[in-house]
Amino acid sequence: MVDASESARRGPYAKTASRRAEIIASATAIFSTHGYQGGSLRQIARQLDLGLTTVMHHFPTKVALLAAVLDQEDSSDPDAEERSRRDGFIPMVIGIVERNLRRQELVRMFSIISAEATHPGHEAHAWLVNRYAAVTASYLDLIAYDRAAGRITTDRDPELLAGIVVSGWEGIQIRWLADGTDPVEAMRTLLVDLLRPA
Amino acid sequence: MVDASESARRGPYAKTASRRAEIIASATAIFSTHGYQGGSLRQIARQLDLGLTTVMHHFPTKVALLAAVLDQEDSSDPDAEERSRRDGFIPMVIGIVERNLRRQELVRMFSIISAEATHPGHEAHAWLVNRYAAVTASYLDLIAYDRAAGRITTDRDPELLAGIVVSGWEGIQIRWLADGTDPVEAMRTLLVDLLRPA
Fold it and tell me: Which Pfam families match (chains A, B) (predicted)?
């Protein structure tokens, strides 16, 4: 949020950006309650006390809004690979699990959309498949890097390990969202037992 | 399905049971496509070419139908604990993972409803929390049993291990639903690395 004088000085672009951010935040909340399939632009407009046409001026379709909502996540942690190479893969992952403790509704929205989007007909299906492929490719490199550096001792295929870390993490977070079971202890155990730190 | 003469012989109760089973199967398909929040009794009636009042005669509310849909699963594998004690926990779990390969839409429906139902306001929230508690309690006993029998060598807390097996499994199945990644290899690796068979 910018104050009124700053908004006036920065002109219509700043206003558009702040309105877009507001709609994206509302969509995150609506999708985390009703799912993507169950949410609607109309609900989002109502929540923000805006006309439906105003919302549709910024996001003409629900899928356009979904793309913007999903982009939030992808752009939110550009330094993860660098931290992993510097500090190790296990501390990097645990750092993100800890950060996610403070973004419960965003994590819930991603969990619901991921489960829905397993369906090949879902509008986020390609996003989900690409996200699994991209994160697994990144993590398999980082696991191979840690093994070459002598930080971990497993001799399993890094691609298999990366896939289990990514998907096990997803399930552990769903459990945390449901009943509060500590995801940090569960992820640390999973990582240590799979990767076997030196 | 029963044939017409058998249905006539067995009378109205058999007919009601078969109509209920039909509605439950349709609800499973609708919820696995649209989620529970996004699905409706109206869509289910349309899919079965029934009137909405006929569906509501069997299930007056969507949450009543949800309860019946969720019950399918709970009643579907009463012998799992016995198989685990006889053959071991790891083969028992792998057997269920292999069986789930043939029930993709049912697994998808459970994955979507579980993610939605993490929300405390969701109509299946209590079911989800109870299911996690019940499955974890059962699995921690079975893991402790295998350890006492010398089948596995981990010295970690069985409750922590049981929780990671249950939630890791959920994430591994979501990945399988999305892009076909083999859930049997992933679960076997997870179980072996966590439980360390003798």
Answer: TetR_N (PF00440)
